Amino acid sequence: MIQQRYDVGIVGAGPAGLTAAYFAARAGARVIVLDHRDPPAQKIRISGGGRCNILPAHIDPSAYTTDSSPYIVRNILRAFPLSAAREFLTAVIGLELFQDGEKVYPRGGGEEVQHRFIATARHYGAVVRAPVAVTGVKKGHIILAGGEKVLASRVILATGGMSYPRTGSDGTGFAIARRLGHTVIEPYPALVALRGGSDAHHALAGVSVPAKLTVTTATERAEHTGGFLFTHRGYSGPVVLNLGHLAARAQQRRDHATITVAWNALGAEDWEAALAPSGKTVRGQLRTALPIRLVDLILAETAVPGDVKLAQMRRDARQRLVTALAAYRLPWTGTEGLKTAEVTGGGVALSEIDAATMRSRVHPWLYLCGEILDAFGPIGGANFLWAFATGKLAGSGGAA
Ligand SMILES: Cc1cc2nc3c(=O)[nH]c(=O)nc-3n(C[C@H](O)[C@H](O)[C@H](O)COP(=O)(O)OP(=O)(O)OC[C@H]3O[C@@H](n4cnc5c(N)ncnc54)[C@H](O)[C@@H]3O)c2cc1C
Questions:
Q1: Mind listing the pLDDT tens digit for each residue in 256-299?
Q2: Best substitution site from 23, 33, 169, 340 to test ligand 1's pocket, by max atoms within 8 Å of Cβ?
């Protein structure tokens, strides 16, 4: 029997691989997509708590993190602007989108998006084969577990990162890329929650408050404002998720990261003003600005009696309180790690990719797209956008 040879073989049927499959097939290429999860694209289904935050409402390329050049990220995102991504999702994938604040969602939720992506690739002629595990890639063919070879003139690696490995992205793609001679920036958890704190902190699980977080490491300082959430084991919420990778990377380097919190995103001067002498009690005044359980935690940790009138508060007590309110030193001890991180930082260095086509500069028959690359965006749909943009370029590039 003569074995079918494909023009484009895609490893990984996540959002990046399936987008590549559509663009390659539409350009006339014979396409096969291989995935070891059935059905594939499981991250689409579970994303955004099942609601699937599929795009951001606005795009800020400078908010993406990479060790490579930020200009490459910007050029890639420019090649598939938000308007084009929306058009693709509505006209091609058949989704109805709506905006909620800064986020864009599909009406049907993640499961519908997952099935529509797979159906669209098939509709345009791509073969989607699952479950089948890819163990290696060579010029001209893809090697499956068990030794079978799938013949493909061009190969697109779209295996994702290594976060949430139960969805299928278990890091095999990084190993394959390394074996092919690519530089892989050491992967680290990103959009990740933190562990740490005392039992008193864990008892506040579920309490959320707006906050400004400042992370300071030996090499950088970053600030972010957003929702902060106490959890049973530490801290989460958008503001923590968006900066958690800095803690992860500091640990990776055996370096230290200091994280301070300004509760309610207020600075020392604001708190000084709020705590100006008056007839109100300290506790009464703080509870107008913060959840009472957090107020009690801060009062206990600073040893400031809550029933004292602001006019009678001692100077040193006021000072301790203002520091704890405007620059609270978060007692984090680690991150929740790759098992529950929303994305993987690090990955294949962008300098080794031609940004116009996603073609590897190491092998002219190889293309890469999605989270396997060294870039990730903040929460809010930026990572699906990255998967679609790089998938589009790789699919079009691989089919040419
Ligand atoms: C809990 C959670 C919630 C998220 N929510 C959002 C959100 O709301 N908005 C957003 O923008 N982003 C979100 N993300 C991030 C987003 O899901 C990913 O960035 C995106 O799915 C990456 O796409 P990808 O195609 O590159 O990789 P993946 O989606 O990881 O797909 C890779 C595919 O490759 C397959 N594969 C891997 N190795 C092999 C192999 N050796 N052989 C065969 N197949 C293989 C896997 O089975 C998988 O199907 C979330 C992630 C998580 C974990």
A1: 999 999 999 999 999 999 999 999 999 999 999 999 999 999 99
A2: 169
Residue 2 is predicted with a pLDDT of 73
Model confidence at 359: pLDDT above 80? yes
How far, in Å, CA of 252 to CA of 192, rounded? 14
Task: Report CA 102 to chain centroid distance, whole Å.
Answer: 16
- Alpha-carbon gap, residue 371 to 342, rounded angstroms: 11
Distance (Å, rounded) from C-alpha 330 to C-alpha 70? 30
Confidence of residue 40 (pLDDT cuts 50, 70, 90): very high
Q: Is the CB of 106 under 6 A from ligand 1?
A: no
Say whether pLDDT at 1 is over 90: no
Domain limits of the chain? 5-188+343-399, 194-335
Contact (Cβ atoms closer than 8 angstroms) between residue 42 and residue 30: no
Most ligand 1 atoms within 8 A of CB, residue of 115, 150, 159 to mutate: 159
The domain over range 5-188+343-399 is classified in CATH as 2.30.42.10: no
DSSP output for 303-317? T--TTSBGGG--HHH
Which residue shows structure tokens 């000084």? 272
Whether 53 is in the pocket of ligand 1, judged by its Cβ within 6 Å, is yes
Q: How far is the CA of 112 from the centre of ligand 1 (A)?
A: 16
Atom of ligand 1 at shortest range from CA of 340: 53
Q: What is the longest distance spanned by two Cα atoms in the chain?
A: 92
pTM over 0.70: yes
Does 236 have pLDDT greater than 70?
A: yes
Q: Six-digit token pair at 126?
A: 């791509």
In short, whether 285's Cβ falls inside 6 Å of ligand 1 is no
**Nearest of 395, 392, 396, 390 to residue 64 by alpha carbon:** 390
Regarding the beta carbon of 342 and ligand 1, being less than 6 Å apart is answered yes
Residue 353 reports pLDDT greater than 80? yes
| Cα distance between residue 199 and residue 59, in whole Å | 39
